[in-house]
Amino acid sequence: MALMTDPLAANLFVIGIMFIGFAGYVLYRFIMKKQNTEVDSGFGIFLIGTGLYAAFYGLIYSVLWPAPMGGSYSILFGDPLALLGIVSVLTGVIVLKKASLAFGGIFAFFAGIYAVVSGYGGYVLGMTKSPIALLLMYLGAGIGGIFVAPMVSTKNKTVVTVTAILVVIAFVGAALIALYTGYSAVGEHLAAFKNAAG
Fold first, then answer.
1. Does 2 map to a domain?
2. How many domains does the chain have?
3. What pLDDT score was predicted for residue 70?
4. CATH number at residue 185
5. Domain assignment of residue 4, yes or no
6. Is the Cβ–Cβ distance between 138 and 178 less than 8 Å?
7. 0.85 surpassed by pTM
8. Closest CA to 80 of 116, 47, 106
9. How many CB atoms are closer than 10 A to CB 181?
10. What is the DSSP letter of 27?
11. Residue 192: exposed, middle, or buried by beta-carbon count in 10 A (0-12, 13-18, 19+)?
């Protein structure tokens, strides 16, 4: 009997790490007002590495998942994951090249709107075992992405600080839900594969 692999638990774990990294960098650079070449370089490499992972799996879900799982799940999980990967790689390159983060902020803004719409749609349709966790995770990711745009594109210190605090709260919330959901799914996946294998 052929087994279908389900890397969604690992994907959620990586997404959680990504959002903790995003939140940490925003805290460091936009709230604590610190900047260091080594930190920027490390963060840029971190974003590119995790972003390539997310984009890779997002494309796999979007292209290959419709056959066994149904197209709606591919849209719910694959498309936002691919967009997250693109935003992450784009921002990593911008940080490494010391270019303006405003360009990444534009993409993050629209990807954030997409995440909110996807999370709300998945919640209304009850597409997961825990629709409220899905909604909150997608809202955290989406709202954080939306607020990145004003955070990186204005020189008003109050706006930067307030939006940075909102971004950190939103991203930490999304990260905690992703990590908890990912860890919780590991046991279920192992049991399902053990039972299927006999």
1. no
2. 1
3. 53
4. 1.25.40.600
5. no
6. no
7. yes
8. 116
9. 21
10. I
11. middle
- 6-15 pLDDT per residue, tens: 677 889 999 9
In a domain, 1, yes or no: no
**H/E stretch holding 99:** none
Identify the burial level of 26 via C-beta atoms within 10 angstroms of its C-beta, where 0-12 means exposed, 13-18 middle and 19 or more buried: buried
Range of the domain at 119: 9-192
Q: Is 36 exposed, middle or buried (0-12, 13-18, 19+ CB in 10 A)?
A: exposed
Least Cα distance to 110 among 148, 155, 157 occurs for: 148
Provide the pLDDT confidence category of residue 160 given band limits of 50, 70 and 90.
very high
Q: Which amino acid is at 46?
A: F
Tokens of 113: 């709107």
CA neighbor of 51 nearest in space, from 86, 95, 5: 86
Q: Cα Rg for the chain, rounded, in angstroms?
A: 17
Does residue 42 belong to any structural domain of this protein? yes
CA-nearest of 129, 116, 135, 6 to 61 is 6
Q: Which of 2-11, 45-54, 183-192 has the lowest mean pLDDT?
A: 2-11
